[in-house]
Every structure is written in structure tokens, then in C-alpha cells.
């Protein structure tokens, strides 16, 4: 018996959007963006102070860059976005790049595998940064982008130097050991 006008439920027709995969990607994006540290922790004014020595400054930079890595990436992207408001082509390229960043950097549960090699987060971060810079330079907004990168780097370095690291823990075990001691 044929049912004319009925909607086919077979998988042989046109491709149907898999709602499970969409919701999984949506959850991965939320989880990836959740790796950022709370902004109130990043801008806790009680944890601001001048380093005692040059080695203390370098130690703070190293620890803060690791701890606030996602936050710093967001700061760079916002500064670049604000600098490109008057360049719509560059802004469109940046928007596409933001989606690439979200897809490749933020929501991943496991490392990227490329030609059976495992690519770590730092390599992905550096590659995406270089691709972002190159593509935005090709849109003829070089001076704006260079200024934005300089401003972003200065903001990140100033924060990384003056933000004390005494209350930052990279894992839960270290935090528990510190509170028990």
C-alpha cells in the first residue's frame, strides 16, 4: 500500500540534520567556553600587586598565561574585533575565524589527530593564531590589526605581571592539598 503525500522516514532521501550531533556540538561549545576562568577571579583587585623581582614577574607571567589562557584568547579576539569595526571585510573574515576557533580550539574533549599524529593544545593555539593574523593581514587592515595585537599583548602582559598567583590552582588536587595544609 502506498501513502501518497506522506513524509518519508527512510534514510534514503535527502540528508536530515542529526539533532543529537547538533546538541553535542552545542554542549561541547558550552563546555569549551567553560574552561575559561571566571572574570571576577581574573580581575580580583585583592590579588593585584607589583612583583618583588624580575624572576617573580616571569614566574607570574608563566603561571597566569597557563591559568587564564582561554580568557586571554577572548581578550585578544575582542580587541581585534573592536579594531575592525570600520573594516567590514576584515570583520567578516574575523567572524568566520571565530567560528573556526570555537570549532577547533574551545570545545574539544580530546586532542586533534592529524595524519595519525596527536596535536596538543599549544600547537593548535599557535597555528590558529598565525592563520588568524595572516588572513586578517590579507584584508588590508594591517595597521589596525598590528595596533590591536600590540594593545592585546600589552593588556595581557600587564595583567599577567601584576596578578598575584598565590591563589591560583591548575588542578583540584593542588587546591585540596593547599587547603588541608
From TrEMBL:
The chain crosses the membrane at residues 65-85, 91-107, 119-139. Coiled coil: none annotated. GO terms for biological process: vesicle-mediated transport. One of its GO terms (cellular component) is membrane. It is a multi-pass membrane protein. Keywords: Membrane, Transmembrane, Transmembrane helix, Transport. The keyword Transmembrane helix applies. The keyword Zinc does not apply. It is found in: Endomembrane system; Membrane. Pfam families: PRA1. InterPro entries: Prenylated_rab_accept_PRA1. Belongs to the PRA1 family. PANTHER family: PRA1 FAMILY PROTEIN F3-RELATED (PTHR19317:SF61), PRENYLATED RAB ACCEPTOR 1-RELATED (PTHR19317). May be involved in both secretory and endocytic intracellular trafficking in the endosomal/prevacuolar compartments. This is PRA1 family protein. It comes from Brassica campestris (Field mustard).
Amino acid at each position: 500500500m502506498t501513502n501518497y503525500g506522506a513524509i518519508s522516514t527512510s534514510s534514503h532521501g535527502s540528508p536530515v540534520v542529526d539533532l543529537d550531533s547538533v546538541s553535542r556540538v552545542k554542549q561541547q561549545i558550552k563546555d569549551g567556553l567553560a574552561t575559561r576562568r571566571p572574570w571576577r577571579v581574573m580581575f580580583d583587585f585583592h590579588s593585584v600587586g607589583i612583583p618583588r623581582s624580575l624572576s617573580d614577574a616571569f614566574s607570574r607571567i608563566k603561571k597566569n598565561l597557563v591559568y587564564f589562557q582561554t580568557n586571554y584568547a577572548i581578550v585578544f579576539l575582542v580587541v581585534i574585533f573592536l579594531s575592525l569595526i570600520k573594516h567590514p571585510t576584515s570583520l567578516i573574515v574575523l567572524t568566520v575565524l571565530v567560528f573556526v576557533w570555537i570549532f577547533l580550539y574551545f570545545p574539544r574533549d580530546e586532542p586533534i589527530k592529524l595524519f595519525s599524529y596527536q596535536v596538543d593544545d599549544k600547537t593548535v593555539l599557535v597555528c590558529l593564531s598565525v592563520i588568524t593574523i595572516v588572513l586578517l593581514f590579507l584584508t588590508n587592515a594591517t595597521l589596525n590589526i598590528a595596533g590591536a595585537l600590540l594593545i592585546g599583548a600589552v593588556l595581557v602582559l600587564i595583567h599577567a605581571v601584576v596578578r598575584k598567583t598565590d591563589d591560583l590552582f591548575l588542578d583540584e588536587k593542588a587546591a585540596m592539598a593547599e587547603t588541608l595544609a
